[in-house]
Specification:
Helix 1 crosses helix 8, helix 3 packs parallel to helix 4 and helix 4 packs parallel to helix 6. The longest helix is centred in the middle third of the chain and has 29 residues. Strand 4, helix 4 and strand 5 form a beta-alpha-beta unit. The chain has twelve helices and eight strands. Strands 3-2-1-4-5-6-7-8 form an eight-stranded mixed beta sheet, sandwiched between helices. The protein is about 45% helix and about 15% strand. The structure holds 1,4-dihydronicotinamide adenine dinucleotide.
Amino acid sequence: MSDLRFDGRVVVVTGAGAGLGRTYALLFASRGAKVVVNDLGGGRDGDGKSSKAADNVVNEIKTRGGTAVADYNSVVEGEKIIKTAIDNFGRVDVLINNAGILRDKSFMKITDHDWDLIQAVHLKGSFKTTQAAFPVFKKQNYGRIIMTASTSGLYGNFGQANYSAAKMGLVGLANTVAIEGERYNIHCNIIVPTAASRLTQDIMPPDLFEALKPDLIAPVVAYLCHESCLENGAIIESGGGWAGKCQILRANGAILRKNLTEDVSIENVQKLWEQIIDTKNGKCLGSGREVVIALVEVLEKLRNGDIKSIQNEEDGTDE
Ligand code: NAI
């Protein structure tokens, strides 16, 4: 099997001065890419800044014979980061939105500042940087974008309401960027990592922390950004040397009335609740269009009086 290379490609990695971003930057550079190592260099909570984090990684890449340039802007000024890529390398092919901070507090203790800063860095930062790169990708009919979500967004996590909301917002952003980019060969996928870093050092037991090296996720992200990868709009969870796709499962559900003229009653909702929440024969829908098709089928059944769910409930039959 020949190596997957990124020669001639310019890769921007935000928050690449540490943790996961650093491993992405090192891997892309080792496979021939020119890398923009962006990092604000602040604290874990988003306060402060420093050029040291980005400089260290650029030096690491150069020492290993690679090509990289540092960028110290905050992702909320994403256009400046993309300008660094264009000014230094004349193009940009891959954008990894990875920069992140935490301001963990239980829900009632979250201040406006905690909320705004988390949304700004994760959600607005990814929006700004992606929006600046998009016209470049469109013009060259090529682009690969990664958004970084979190299991805290997908499944929730105590003390992280602000972070969970931002991370799930990124899933929505990626879903639509993937649709709008498709015709220009611009793919946008979501990585949901679990890895040892300063964001997780105090929440993971030491042996787990040791085992979940961020380097184990970098190849998954790199493959998603390779020209040979056709995946678009996928949520890929990864950690500890494992990766798998996540999708939202929709229950088969229940039709809540007998015909088109009847209203839906609360009592019918209660009666049919077990069917509404039964995901056993559920499906993962691939687009909003599939949602509309499914609704048209429901309306068709209502028109034809072909409603099994309510009738069966009333007859006491299963099917
Ligand atoms: P990390 O703290 O080691 O790295 C994040 C980097 O982003 C830091 O170097 C920081 O200086 C930089 N950064 C923060 N705000 C910035 C800004 N405004 N502009 C530019 N750079 C900024 O953390 P880690 O774990 O490597 O996190 C990377 C991404 O992965 C984050 O988006 C995080 O939310 C996400 N993530 C990480 C998980 C994990 O298990 N480590 C779990 C789920 C998501």
